[in-house]
């Protein structure tokens, strides 16, 4: 299966036509280096041969981890329309039915932002449940009064889940906070009671999901 494409793209800075190699699929078992490139933001960039400026080319990209069995599809700048979203999820499900076995159930995700993709990978790499992680996040943020901005899971350290917090559109974290694993397990119980489906569907698991599960 071809994983990369070559495209001619005009530099957003100086309009020079450049040829650029773009990745549409990352199968991490086959190309572990691509994962590194994803995290260092060296993937799907255009470095202009004329002016030297670097710009990210936002194209849909999927990330498949065959060993841990999770699949994340990034659709940058997708219109937030419920109907369109449902159509997308359905088509993804049918397109991947032959590729993804039952082991992937509850670990098929769609994200609309590059950094969300990175966060999901970190979560699933730690074999955590992203539904529960979103739950932890919203409860902690409510308590810490960190509602404006974004929080993202970073790592597990000393039996705690560590999160970074970003003000509004900032890319550099201004704060971090952590949650004990014990709290994670408590929320896991709640989520598993309320959302017990063994789902083979693609889902969007985000802050709205957590609000629906825990705040109502
Ligand atoms: Zn240029």
Overall geometric form: globular
Order of neighbouring strands in the sheet with most strands: 3-6-7-8
Q: Counting H and I runs of at least 4 residues, what is the number of helices?
A: 6
**What is the CA-atom radius of gyration, in angstroms?**
18 Å
Question: Strand percentage, roughly?
Answer: 25-35%
* β-strand number: 11
End-to-end distance: 45 Å
Question: What are the low-pLDDT stretches, counting only 5+ consecutive residues below 50?
Answer: none
Computed structural class: alpha+beta
Largest sheet properties = 4 strands, mixed
Hetero groups bound?
Answer: zinc ion
Strand and helix order: EEEHEEEEHEHHEEEHH
Percent of residues in helices comes to 25-40%
**Averaged pLDDT:** 93
Please describe what this structure looks like.
The structure is a single chain. A hairpin with a 6-residue loop joins strand 1 and strand 2. By secondary structure, the protein is α+β, with helices and mostly antiparallel strands. Strands 3-6-7-8 form a 4-stranded mixed beta sheet, covered by helices on one side. A 3-stranded antiparallel beta sheet has the order 9-10-11. It starts with a strand and ends with a helix. It has a domain of 82 residues. The protein has 6 helices and 11 strands. The protein binds zinc ion (ZN). The site of zinc ion (ZN) has 8 residues, from loops. Zinc ion binds next to loops.
């Amino acid at each position: 299966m071809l994983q990369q494409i070559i495209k001619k793209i005009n530099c957003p800075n100086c309009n020079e036509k450049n040829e650029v190699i773009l990745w549409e699929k990352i199968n991490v078992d086959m190309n572990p280096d691509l994962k590194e490139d994803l995290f260092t933001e060296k993937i799907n960039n255009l470095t202009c041969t004329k002016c030297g400026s670097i710009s990210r080319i936002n194209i849909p990209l999927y990330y498949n981890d065959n060993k841990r069995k999770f699949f994340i599809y990034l659709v940058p700048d997708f219109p937030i329309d419920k109907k369109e979203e449902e159509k997308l999820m359905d088509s993804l499900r049918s397109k991947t039915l032959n590729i993804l076995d039952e082991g992937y159930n509850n670990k098929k995700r769609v994200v609309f932002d590059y950094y969300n993709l990175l966060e999901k990978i970190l979560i699933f790499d730690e074999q955590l449940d992203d539904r529960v992680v979103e739950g932890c996040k919203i409860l902690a943020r409510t308590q810490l009064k960190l509602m404006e901005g974004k929080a993202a899971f970073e790592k597990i350290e000393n039996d705690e889940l560590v999160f970074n917090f970003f003000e509004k559109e900032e890319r550099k974290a201004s704060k971090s906070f952590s949650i004990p694993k014990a709290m994670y397990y408590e929320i896991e119980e709640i989520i598993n009671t309320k959302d017990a489906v063994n789902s083979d569907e693609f889902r969007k698991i985000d802050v709205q999901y957590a609000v629906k599960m825990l705040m109502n």
